[in-house]
């Protein structure tokens, strides 16, 4: 079942969106305050251009299935205290025994990459997807694996993603031992333009929680690797695949000092993450006062973002300041026949941003493979321009164009 996205009445009442305009030199600082609720009960989708564009209770879903055209990831909702374990083959579905089970280490979401989710652990990154095997002939994924999921209250469910065929996931879930079995399905075509379908495996519902409006970060609680295999519940920001981030530290004034480097933007989902704050016993949370994040956002602008306040679990309040800086601090193209393409390399399916001299606006661009064939053509009307790589295979590509006054342009980029 596909439910429309929503902002609950409670979310509207608890959501605080204040816009305060300050002048710092020639820069306009916009301050936003919003809330995840007491105990971090909500998840908030945030746009640097528009503020919070959607909010929903975190506890409504258990599993998130990647619904992008080439997506096959499956995430566990660790932010609510759920834990995922591999149990064995599907032949064990009716004979699960917790008393004799040798519990392995939990399977975790890799918070640096949406695609490398808990159910994908143990795969080879190619045809073995972790939870299932991709058939290069039929382009179908089938599985003979089953998992156990422990809920925050200590109860258990057994779960299996059976297949991904023609864009539709099929899964089954039951009580331990196979009672109260439920079959569910999720069709990617119902979630066009979204990252995930959010599934409640108790009810069998699939929810469309992501907004239609573009967003740059989702703020919520999740479990992160703090280093050395230590995992802990944190609250932070995970970036949309089309938003890349550069962290800059050691700034006397994080709203004015430092410049961004187009080549240094990171594709890591958790580049902002949780560590912009530290808990100090007796005094609460202390924020990184000399840090800013430059964000190449979904609105095709580059923003400076500074985390300024955090209310903790009592309120879930978060305050950040932001400044739109795209084009104000750097002239990215010195040689008018050059192009900056970032991030480079780019992960397949993500956007690569192109910065080119103005005389190439409305020029015709070709993307060629190493074999010389044209695999993509486009005509930008303005720069920066976001080029989607969903239809490009992994490899090296040549970008070429000619300006209106006859200047040639050539550049290379890599799709991973």
Overview of this structure, please?
The protein has 416 residues and is mainly beta. It has three domains: 2-59 and 212-324, no CATH class; 62-207, no CATH class; 339-415, Immunoglobulin-like (Sandwich). The chain contains one helix and 31 strands. A hairpin with a 5-residue loop joins strand 11 and strand 12 (156-165). The chain starts with a strand and ends with a strand.
Q: Which features would summarize this protein structure in a list?
A:
disordered N terminus; 31 strands; 416 residues; six-stranded antiparallel sheet; 3 domains; globular; Immunoglobulin-like; 1 helix
Biggest sheet character: 7 strands, antiparallel
Strand-pairing-aware structural class: mainly beta
Uncertain ranges: 1-26, 327-336
Radius of gyration: 23 Å
Cα(first) to Cα(last) distance is 34 Å
Helix content: under 10%
The overall strand count is: 31
Q: Oligomer, anyone?
A: single chain
| Domains (count) | 3
Q: What is the overall silhouette? A: globular
Mean pLDDT: 87
Question: Total helix count?
Answer: 1
Strand content: 35-45%
């Amino acid at each position: 079942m596909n439910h429309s996205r929503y902002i609950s009445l409670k979310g509207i009442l608890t959501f605080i969106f204040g816009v305060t305009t300050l002048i710092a030199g020639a820069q306009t600082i916009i301050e936003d305050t919003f809330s995840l609720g007491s105990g971090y009960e909500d998840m908030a989708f945030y746009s640097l251009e528009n503020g919070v564009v959607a909010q929903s209770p975190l506890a409504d879903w258990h599993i998130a299935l990647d619904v992008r055209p080439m997506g096959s990831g499956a995430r566990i909702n660790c932010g609510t205290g759920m834990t995922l374990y591999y149990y064995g083959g599907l032949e064990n579905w009716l004979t699960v025994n917790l008393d004799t089970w040798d519990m392995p280490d939990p399977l975790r979401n890799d918070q640096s990459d949406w695609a490398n989710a808990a159910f994908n652990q143990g795969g080879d990154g190619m045809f073995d997807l972790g939870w299932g095997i991709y058939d290069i002939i039929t382009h179908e994924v089938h599985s003979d694996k089953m998992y156990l999921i422990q809920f925050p209250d200590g109860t258990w469910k057994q779960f299996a993603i059976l297949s991904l065929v023609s864009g539709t996931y099929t899964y089954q879930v039951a009580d331990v031992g196979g009672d109260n079995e439920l079959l569910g399905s999720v069709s990617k075509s119902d979630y066009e333009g979204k990252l995930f379908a959010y599934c409640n495996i108790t009810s069998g519902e699939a929810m469309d929680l992501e907004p239609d409006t573009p967003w740059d970060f989702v703020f919520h609680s999740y479990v992160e690797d703090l280093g050395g295999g230590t995992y802990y519940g944190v609250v932070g920001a995970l970036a949309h695949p089309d938003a890349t981030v550069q962290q800059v530290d050691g700034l006397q004034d994080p709203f004015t000092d430092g410049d961004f480097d187009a080549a240094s933007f990171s594709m890591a989902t958790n580049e902002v993450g949780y560590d912009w704050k530290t808990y100090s016993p007796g005094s609460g949370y202390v924020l990184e006062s000399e840090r800013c994040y430059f964000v190449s956002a979904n609105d095709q602008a580059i923003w400076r973002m500074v985390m300024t306040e955090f209310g903790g679990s009592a309120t879930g309040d978060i305050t950040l300041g932001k400044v739109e800086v795209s084009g104000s601090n750097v002239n990215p193209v010195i040689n008018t026949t050059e192009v900056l393409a970032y991030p480079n390399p780019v992960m397949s399916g993500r956007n690569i941003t192109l910065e080119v001299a103005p005389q190439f606006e409305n020029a015709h661009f070709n993307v060629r493979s190493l074999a010389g064939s044209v695999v993509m053509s486009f005509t930008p009307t303005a720069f920066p321009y976001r080029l989607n790589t969903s239809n490009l295979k992994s490899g090296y590509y040549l970008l070429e164009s000619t300006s209106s006054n006859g200047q040639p342009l050539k550049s290379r980029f890599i799709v991973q």
